[in-house]
Write a structure and sequence with these properties.
Layout (H helix, E strand, L loop, with lengths): L2 E7 L4 H17 L1 E7 L3 H6 L6 H4 L1 H18 L14 H13 L2 H13 L8 H10 L4 H7 L3 H16 L7 E4 L2 E4 L4 H6 L2
Parallel strand pairs: 1-2
Antiparallel strand pairs: 1-3, 3-4
Helix pairs in contact: 1-6, 5-6, 5-9, 7-8
């Protein structure tokens, strides 16, 4: 039986960028399959009394995070650019990713969206940016962009976010191996090797 990992990520999460770009290669080295689980941190943060990213609420933490991202991206060879808006409104991007996870193209799409945001500085809240990404990937952009406005997709992403909450997920990226939760890009390898 092939071991699998549930990969929970948020497009507004800087550290999710690192994991999204590394997980497929690291998982393949270990013979682990990846279940891509886009979700929204906003409702989880709101339940904790936060109305913004903790990196904005705590300025010293925010300054550290941006510097840390520069170092970590340099170490693993990823381009990095601080986006003009942070955190970005990621609902539409996450809905598209939810469709992609169900149709088999979620990984490639997610990698491209994170690159657009954190390497190119593009605004992924913009429908046209998402549509361009879908077209670059040779996907049916009009069909997909229409789907994300329909109740089944909205409900699917909402239920997936509720599932993340029920699992005790409080940040992104997070990894679930069975009942074991790992949080943060720096726990990716440990999660892949668990069990």
């Amino acid at each position: 039986m092939t071991k699998s990992i549930d990969f929970w990520y948020e497009f507004a999460s800087t550290y999710s960028y690192l994991s999204v770009m590394r997980i497929e290669g690291e998982a393949a080295k270990r013979g682990v399959s990846v279940n891509w689980k886009p979700f929204l941190l906003g409702p989880i943060f709101h339940s904790q009394g936060w109305d913004n990213s903790p990196f904005n609420i705590y300025p010293a933490k925010g300054r550290y995070m941006w510097r840390d991202m520069v170092r970590r991206c340099r170490r693993i060879g990823l381009p990095f650019k601080v986006p003009e808006v942070f955190p970005v409104h990621s609902v539409k991007a996450a809905r598209v990713a939810w469709v992609g996870a169900n149709e088999g193209w979620g990984a490639a799409y997610s990698q491209r969206v994170f690159t657009a945001q954190f390497a190119e500085g593009r605004n992924i809240a913009d429908r046209e940016v998402l549509k361009e990404i879908l077209e670059e990937l040779k996907l049916e952009s009009d069909r997909i962009m229409a789907l994300i406005e329909e109740s089944p997709v909205k409900d699917g992403l909402r239920k997936q976010t509720e599932e993340a909450t029920s699992l005790g997920i409080f940040g992104a990226p997070s990894f679930m191996v069975g009942d074991e939760l790992f949080w943060g890009d720096d726990r990716l390898e440990e999660a892949l090797e668990w069990g």
